[in-house]
Amino acid sequence: MTNRVVITGLGVITPIGNDHTTFWNNLIQGKSGVGPVTRFDTTNYACKIAAEVKDFDPLHFLDKKEARKMDRFTQFAVAAAKMAIQHAELDMSKEDPTRVGVYIGSGIGGLGTLEEQHKTLINRGPRRVSPFFIPMMIANMASGQVSIITGARGPNSAVISACATGTHSIGDAFKIIQRGDADVMIAGGAEATILPMAFAGFSSMGALSTRNDDPQKASRPFDRERNGFVMGEGAGIVVMEKLEHAMQRGADIIAEVAGYGMTADAYHLTSPSPEGEGAMRSMLRAVEDAGLQPEDIDYINAHGTSTDLNDKFETMAIKNAFKDHAYKLLVSSNKSMIGHLLGAAGGVEAIATALTLKEQVIPPTINYENPDPDCDLDYVPNEARKARVRAALSNSLGFGGHNATILLKAYEDA
After folding, report:
1. Cα(312)–Cα(309) distance, rounded to whole angstroms?
2. Most buried among 178, 211, 341, 358, using CB within 10 Å?
3. How far apart are CA 62 and CA 66, in angstroms?
4. What is the pLDDT of residue 48?
5. In angstroms, rounded to a whole number, what is the distance separating the alpha carbons of residues 51 and 297?
6. pLDDT for the residue 413
7. Could you tell me which pathway this protein works in (predicted)?
8. In Å, how far are 141, 223, 378 from 317, measured between CA atoms?
9. Is the separation of the CB atoms in 241 and 177 below 8 Å?
10. Which structural domain, as residue segments, surrounds residue 338?
11. Is 215 in the same domain as 291?
12. Which residues are part of the catalytic machinery?
């Protein structure tokens, strides 16, 4: 017998809010977090816009000495984890720390630290490189630092699967609880790469939107005029528990995690496989894992990047997976408002999906103005919609052909 797994705590740092309540309210109101880049000079860049985190002060969550030893992505992760634990009302002093684990990934990790320390090396020599350079930069350190700060001594790891990282982290942590290797998992993703080097790389690839004159309309998933994604940053962390554990301590249950699918395209470094074949199998695997049928799904929180091929092929994947039911599904993309948070996207979007189930409201896909004949599903355009949502999928599809899907259900006693 496998354990049922529920979500009891949420923590976010995002371009539209640094707590889950503000984030959710802005999401359902269709507010965009995209604007001109403020963190560096974009004069020589084709793209000059991003979805930056605003008003984040790590000293609200860490003392100055601790914060200085962390890259920005780790600061985001620690802040979101602390908020998720507080929201879950999880008292670590009452827990067996060996039964509490951490599974937090990052697609790129401490790129800001790498850039900074490389300048130090070139300009000031090797002796001036920080002794904290390596432990600040490596992508597993968000998971490591959250473990150290919380005292969680159970399963601990860090997924690195590009834009699928956050969803893989939550899915893998779900399986750890399901099979009985932990009672509680703190899981999700964090990213902070709105930086000159990352911008240059994505720009050279032609992946970013250059709608610089109208930033808030630049991220437009499934719209015919989409021309690239908008880079975002932040963190999304959930507290998940074995159902019995949550009930014993009287926790408020937000949603149930019921299924997980993961596949590979085995096709191309950056392009999705034709017709979204890998994404289709990932969704169907999550449905099967949950013991449901495709027609049981009411909503899909799409990867929906606002790039030509992703939106076209993800739409095809949904249609191939769900057949006629695809046209009854509600589909939307949070990235229309928060941009693409890369390794953090799956964590933040899982939280949005959990709140969709809790509140029975679908966040919109904003900037959907020009229908694309290749994208012909119900994308909940421009305004949130009340709807009955019993089961929902959240998709993440990463460079390298990594596909991940989690299935969440509205919680019911059974």
Report:
1. 5
2. 341
3. 6
4. 97
5. 30
6. 73
7. Lipid metabolism; fatty acid biosynthesis
8. 34, 17, 14
9. yes
10. 256-409
11. no
12. 163
Residues 77-96 have pLDDT tens digits of 999 999 999 999 999 999 99
Q: What is the pLDDT of residues 117-165, one digit of tens each?
A: 999 999 999 999 999 999 999 999 999 999 999 999 999 999 999 999 9
Look up the CATH number of the domain holding residue 206. 3.40.47.10
Grade residue 271 by pLDDT with cuts at 50, 70 and 90: confident
Q: 69-107 as b/e, with b when 16 or more CB fall inside 10 Å? A: ebbbbbbbbbbbbbbbbebbebeeeebeeebbbbbbbbb
CB 184 within 8 A of CB 101: yes
Span 99-103, average pLDDT: 98
Domain C-terminal end among 221, 248, 275: 248
pLDDT value, residue 263? 98
pLDDT tens column, 286-327: 999 999 999 999 999 999 999 999 999 999 999 999 999 999
| Percent of the chain scoring above 90 in pLDDT | 97
Residues 273 and 386 in one domain: yes
Same domain, 96 and 165: yes
**Same structural domain, 209 and 289:** no
Q: How far apart are CA 80 and CA 150, in angstroms?
A: 13
Contacts of 366 (CB under 8 A, 6+ apart): 30, 32, 220, 336, 337, 382
Element (H, E) at 171: helix 165-178
Torsions phi, psi of 254, nearest 5?
A: -90, -45
Q: Are residues 131 and 98 in the same domain?
A: yes
Residue 171, token pair as written in the block: 């899915």
Provide the number of structural domains found in the chain: 2
Domain boundary among 225, 248, 271: 248
| Same-domain check for residues 238 and 293 | no
* Cα–Cα dist 135/221, whole Å: 36
Residue among 399, 215, 228, 402 nearest 308 (CA): 228
Three-state DSSP state, 377: coil
Other Cβ atoms within 10 Å of 396 Cβ, number:
32
Q: Is the pLDDT of residue 215 over 90?
A: yes
414 inside domain = no
